[in-house]
Amino acid sequence: MRGGRLRERMAGLKTPSKSPGKRKNGFGVYYEQILARLFNRFGRYKNHQKLLMLGIDGAGKTSLLRKVKLLEPRTQPTVGFNLESLQYRQQTLVMWDVGGQEKIRSLWHHYFVKSQALIFVVDSSDPSRIPEARKELQKLLHETELKDAKLLVYANKQDVQNCLSVSDLADMLDLSLVEDREWHVQGCSASTGKGVYEGLDWLVEVLKPS
Ligand SMILES: Nc1nc2c(ncn2[C@@H]2O[C@H](COP(=O)(O)OP(=O)(O)OP(=O)(O)O)[C@@H](O)[C@H]2O)c(=O)[nH]1
Ligand SMILES: [Mg+2]
Predict the structure, then answer these.
(1) In terms of CATH, what superfamily is 47-207?
(2) Ligand 1 probe mutation, 15, 61, 63, most atoms within 8 A of CB
(3) What is this structure's pTM?
């Protein structure tokens, strides 16, 4: 693989060039894991905060990432990951957005290492999938590698009429039972941008070196 393409892929700037056939048989996903590991070890971002964004498929993770970076929305499901860095309030934030389809959730653990924060994204407009999101969040909160990670929950898609309120969503996710770490739930919309930076404000405050 040529260095240029590797760098572009690591920066999340290009969709992978592997054919869909290869992706389906798992090779593409394996290739993504190697990239993730390489980047974790030799990444060019020094003294940064690693923010790991997870959540079930369709929650709006990629849309949020692209909103934060002021990129055009792109709506295809993520197979593998996207990666973006940004300077925000004197901190370098490196945001990892990992695909949430059920068949690739077993690969999430490859991305846990050295995550200072877990950003868990939930679709507030789809109450039928909250139990599934809660189950995935509970599993993540039991992961040893994530035990020191702060938790930011984005209650996304607040622009959709009749969506769940932030407090109802927090109840449905059992967030009041989370006692082992600092957490915050932030209503937001990746479509309008409302609430997105408020969530990051909370994160940079709790991640500030003391
Ligand atoms: N109305 C509305 N739609 C949104 C919002 N955020 C995302 N969407 C839509 O929800 C769909 C899924 O968004 P994605 O960002 O691809 O979701 P994802 O979490 O990255 O999904 P995976 O990559 O499959 O894990 C897309 O059609 C988006 O346009 C939002 O805040 N409001
Ligand atoms: Mg995505």
Answers:
(1) P-loop containing nucleotide triphosphate hydrolases (3.40.50.300)
(2) 63
(3) 0.86
